[in-house]
Backbone:
């Protein structure tokens, strides 16, 4: 995924109302971080007979460890300390052993694998961990003391259970998944070796184990290090205070953009993206576990991975939803698909919950709804199958296209429906579909996002000239063949249902079927409309109008303004709120929440 650096753009920043206590620490830049940690180490050793302090710096997949340890080494040297640095990543198993262990989770398929459910220690060699532990113990028992001594054990796994009790200070160096993927384009040090690790392995293995490992540590840390770009060190108290303040207010995620082999001109214009970009086919508004929050702390900015924030503040954000229901994930996704001035999206299908659990270990399905934000006259969405379809002919045509490059007219098999601005189309799992050319679609869907089984991609390469993978075996296992023209027209293009209204405002239920665990509403208003979370989180996008301010009547500091096309998350704990029109034309807001 490609992003712009939005650090200087106030519309993407979250600005919580924070006040710092004397014990809260926020240090930006290596010089300030090195000075603070040196002073903290000296405070620990003061009065100790051995003058020793052991520090652990654990970290996320893809952390650039020399970039962390080199400035700290120089800082400790400046403060007259005797330093010892030990690399905990030597405790990982050899690459051949790891490859054998992970083989069942990383098939030959270029896209799909199976989620690895074990912890980080399962990738480590117990003998090597014991040897590292013994080395730290020997260092601590050293008798001859001429100056303050500091040992830094760094690397992924430094704070595993058998080592944790040996340290005086615990630090975690965190990265966003986006940054880890960016760094992995050229290098990676996830297993103690310099090597390139596939994005598939990052998703199915490394992100899984590192998220679980970090989450177990968050309440046991002394310091948290944002190691993404310009480093920022937070004390554990400052981290918790920051996360709690964000979770109590409406907030935005950092945008993620990606070019594609179709359209993408509408998003490029609306979001004022760089002229040199060929297009912007996708804008990921809320694909939460892959994203981050940019937070203005007043003295500096911090970039907090969603998975870190959400683990700390799950209850405030999601409310009554048990963690086990969605595997601890944020369950609703919003993203844009832009086929303006381009071709059709691929003909595709998404799997049911039973299929993704059985094949990939995912906790829930990938159902979607298409909200039409803009469109050309006469645009259509491919949705469902034609009456009287010949299943075997469809299968053979798709296979010939994939294996031999033989084009075919997919509309012999796939039904299409007219689509105009502000329509909503339902795409339950197992429904063959794909946006047509000339549309801007806001996808409102389950967060599970990897499982698009392409049936026909129009023999069209991606922007690198490579054909995108087709997954016919999976696709033809999950297609619901009864979803044909008459059934689709009757069930998958619902009419809005008015549920409440007043002078100059109304709310409509626009999307609700039992195959989905989310429901979608549209709020329409001239000046303002009142609403409440009622214990539910919700996700909102302004799809008509210029600008809206979401105002909490209980606390004006818990308010947020968002512009046309932008998306916000409203946490369950917010309670009552008002949407106030800050533009000159009427507004429409799409709102999704769990049923």
Residues:
């Amino acid at each position: 995924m490609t992003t712009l650096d939005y650090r200087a753009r106030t519309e993407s920043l979250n600005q919580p109302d924070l006040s710092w206590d004397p014990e809260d620490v926020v240090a930006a830049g290596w010089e300030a971080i090195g000075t603070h940690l040196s002073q903290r180490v000296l405070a620990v050793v003061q009065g100790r007979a051995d003058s020793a302090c052991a520090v652990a710096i654990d970290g996320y997949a893809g952390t650039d460890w020399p970039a962390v340890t080199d400035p700290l080494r120089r800082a400790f040297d400046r403060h007259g300390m005797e330093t010892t640095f030990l690399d905990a990543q030597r405790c990982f198993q050899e690459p051949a052993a790891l490859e054998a262990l992970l083989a069942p989770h990383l098939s030959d398929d270029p896209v799909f694998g199976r989620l690895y459910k074990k912890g980080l220690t399962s990738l480590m060699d117990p003998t090597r961990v014991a040897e590292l532990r013994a080395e730290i113990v020997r260092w601590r028992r050293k008798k001859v003391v001429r100056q303050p001594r500091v040992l830094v054990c760094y690397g992924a796994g430094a704070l595993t259970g058998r080592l944790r009790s040996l340290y005086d200070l615990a630090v975690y160096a965190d990265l966003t998944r986006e940054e880890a993927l960016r760094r992995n384009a050229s290098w990676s040090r996830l297993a103690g070796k310099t090597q390139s690790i596939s994005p598939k392995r990052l998703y199915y293995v490394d992100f899984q184990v590192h998220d679980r490992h970090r989450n177990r540590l968050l309440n046991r840390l002394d310091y948290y290090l944002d190691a993404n770009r310009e480093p920022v060190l937070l004390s554990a108290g400052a981290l918790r205070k920051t996360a709690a303040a964000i979770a109590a207010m409406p907030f935005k995620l950092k945008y993620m953009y990606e070019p594609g082999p179709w359209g993408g001109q509408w998003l490029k214009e609306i979001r004022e993206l760089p002229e040199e970009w060929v297009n912007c086919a996708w804008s990921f508004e809320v694909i939460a576990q892959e994203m981050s929050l940019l937070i203005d702390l007043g003295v500096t900015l911090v970039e907090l991975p969603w998975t870190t924030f959400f683990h700390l503040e799950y209850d405030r954000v999601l409310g009554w939803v048990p963690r086990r229901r969605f595997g601890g994930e944020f369950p609703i996704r919003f993203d844009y698909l832009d086929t303006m001035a381009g071709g059709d999206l691929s003909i595709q299908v998404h799997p049911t919950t039973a299929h993704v659990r059985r094949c990939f270990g995912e906790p829930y399905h990938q159902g979607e709804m298409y909200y039409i934000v803009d469109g050309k006259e006469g645009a259509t969405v491919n949705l469902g199958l034609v009456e009287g379809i010949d299943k075997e002919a469809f299968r053979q045509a798709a296979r010939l296209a994939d294996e031999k490059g033989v084009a075919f007219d997919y509309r012999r098999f796939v039904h299409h429906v007219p689509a105009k601005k502000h329509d909503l189309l339902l795409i339950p799992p197992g429904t063959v579909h794909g946006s047509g050319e000339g549309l801007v679609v806001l996808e409102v869907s389950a967060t599970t996002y990897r499982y698009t089984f392409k049936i026909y991609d129009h023999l069209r390469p991606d922007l690198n000239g490579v054909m995108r993978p087709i997954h016919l075996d999976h696709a033809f296992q999950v297609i619901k063949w009864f979803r044909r023209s008459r059934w689709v027209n009757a069930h998958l293009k619902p009419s809005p249902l008015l549920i409440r209204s007043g002078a100059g405002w109304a709310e409509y239920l626009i999307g609700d079927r039992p195959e989905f665990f989310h429901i979608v509403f549209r709020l329409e208003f001239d000046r303002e409309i009142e609403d409440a979370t009622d214990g539910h989180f919700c996700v909102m996008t302004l799809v008509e109008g210029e600008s809206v301010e979401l105002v909490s009547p209980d606390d004006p500091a818990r308010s947020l303004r968002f512009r046309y096309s932008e998306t916000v998350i409203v946490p369950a704990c917010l309670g009552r709120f008002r949407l106030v029109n800050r533009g000159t034309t009427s507004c429409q807001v799409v709102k999704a929440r769990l049923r």
Remarks:
- The longest strand covers residues 52-59.
- The longest helix spans residues 199-217.
